[in-house]
Amino acid sequence: MESEAVKIEDLTIGYSKGSPLAEIPSLRISTGEIIAITGPSGVGKTTLIRTIAALVRPLSGSVSLFGQTFGARPPRGSIGYIPQRLGLVRHASVLHNVKMGARAGNCGPYALLASTKIRDISLDAIDRMGLSDKIYEPVRRLSGGQQRRVAIARTIAQSPKIILADEFLSELDEKTLEMVKSEVVGFVRKEDATLIVVEHDVSRAKSIADRMLVIDDGRVNPFISSTMALEVP
Amino acid sequence: MRVNWPSIAIPALIFLSIWLMDGLVDDWGRLSGGGQNLVIFFRESLWPPDWRVLEPQAYPVCTAYPLFDFTCSTAWIGITETIKIAFISTVFGVMISLPISILASRNLNPNPITFPFRFILAACRSLPSIIWAIFFVILVGFGPLSGILAMTIYTVGYLGKLQYESIEGMSNIPLESADSMGLSGVEKAIGVVIPEQANNLISQAVFMFEYNVRHGTVIGIVGAGGIGYYINLYLKFLQYDKVVAYLIIIFVVVVVIDFISIYVRSYFNEEGDIAPPKWLSVIIPNWILEYPPIFISNRRQS
Which of A89, A103, A112 to mutate against chain B (most B CBs within 10 Å)? Predict the structure, then answer.
């Protein structure tokens, strides 16, 4: 059954009341949907997903996830956020980073010792991203593309209900890009999760999204289908 | 017209310092005899150092192999005790200061939580280790225990500040990722902060050990164990030649530990920023290693 994953009402985003970045009158995203947010640089695409992730307070309006408005933080493990700069622990191993996601999604905060289950989930996610030979490698020693795959593996291991990904397909070669896309889209379809992607490359956004949201000059254009996206100026 | 502030501020600061000093010093004429006094004191009392401090004590009887009988000397016993006190207090200090510094970091906790922990660290740091040593000598009596307690408290205060400043300087993005995942504070500390800051934390701990060895020599003067105890003893008997011998030993040990500390810390820098020095640089200066005579360059190539 299709239900509402994200509901936005009269939302104004930005970092100070004097200079709001964008206004979003009303936005509803269903579970299982893949949404791409596009638009020129600096219009507030990243700020919008950071607001949905409760990392930035809205200037006005509300964001509710699965029908509940969360004041401070959404429930543990429900949101998987892949920032543009990835947010990995650079000095720790690939396994350690992925385990952080697996812990968030699969056990409570007081289970201090990582169980075998957490390890298995992490190893499976690493394997799906084609990084099995890098398990114990410190993240700082990996290439940009490999680090991006670690961040994606961390999110897959977390198994969140909503994935917020900022330019997560950049820095990948064609072959890896297709692999990552199919893994992430496959995960979203299988788990009935919601994927919200910030993507400035319209053709890449079109290739993954069901619907697209275009932010331009502080205004949010109504949803358009991905087939129309290429016509957007 | 744009004002060049440094050209005004620096002379102003120098002038202010001289003016304040002039207010504090009543008789500048004292400076004139200082050099001569030093020469007389040096010739008559300090030099040559009395190296008998490296000879075994009369009691207890030394049972070490004759080649190693210096291990029964007061200098050896004193300096090893100082190093042990420094090591123990550094280990305890790190264990205590790390959780406190995590709680004191403003990027991890709100102000009402950070404030009391910053207050604790400031309180530990506000008194120098020698004052803590006097305090603990009164509490638990003479000996290394009061030294360990004093140095541990000071280490907590000093290292805690270094640690929380380092934690506050870390990138916010991994913390935001952890926040969005819903990880708890403990998970963030163990899973993100400590691994991400491990290099800095280890480097600071090594630096603290080196610092504690240097300061461990001072706390002995108030009876808190270590080589300072013997220095104080011979100062009382006006045997300055023996004091100089101890000071030279301390200097050599501190220089060696300083080099080892630089070497160890260089392994915990960001990769590629600073190349780790060669072990040989502990003994041979870097400028010789960089432009080596033939015999060194041959050995390095082989």
Answer: A89
Looking at A136, A159, A182, the residue that finishes a domain is A159
pLDDT value of position B270:
57
pLDDT per position as a tens digit, A122-138: 999 999 888 989 889 88
- Mean pLDDT, all residues of chain B: 83
- For the domain that residue A61 is a member of, what is the CATH number? 3.40.50.300
pLDDT, tens only, B109-167: 999 999 999 999 999 988 888 888 888 889 988 888 888 899 999 999 999 999 999 99
pTM for this structure? 0.76
| A162-185 mean pLDDT | 86
Of A159, A179, A210, the one marking the end of a domain is A159
Those residues whose C-beta lies under 8 Å from the C-beta of residue B276, and which sit 6 or more positions away, are B263, B266, B267
- Tell me if A77 and B181 make a contact (CB, 8 A cut-off): yes
- Domain membership of residue A42 (yes or no) is yes
**Is A210 within the bounds of a domain?**
yes
Q: Does residue A155 share a domain with residue A214?
A: no
Q: Considering only CB atoms, which chain B residues are within 8 Å of A89? A: 174, 191-192, 195-196
Shared domain for A154 and A182, answered yes or no, is: no
Residue A83 belongs to a domain: no
C-beta separation of B180 from A70 below 8 A: no
Residue A113's domain comprises: 88-159
Which pLDDT score, from 0 to 100, does residue A8 have?
A: 86
Residues in chain B: 302
Partner-chain residue, chosen from B173, B175, B186, that has the shortest CB–CB distance to A85: B173
Task: Kindly report the nearest CA distance between residue A166 and chain B, in angstroms.
Answer: 12
Residues A68 and A104 grouped into a single domain: no
Residue B65, pLDDT score: 75
**Domains with residue ranges and CATH for chain B:** 72-240 (1.10.3720.10)
User: How many distinct structural domains can be found in chain A?
Assistant: 2
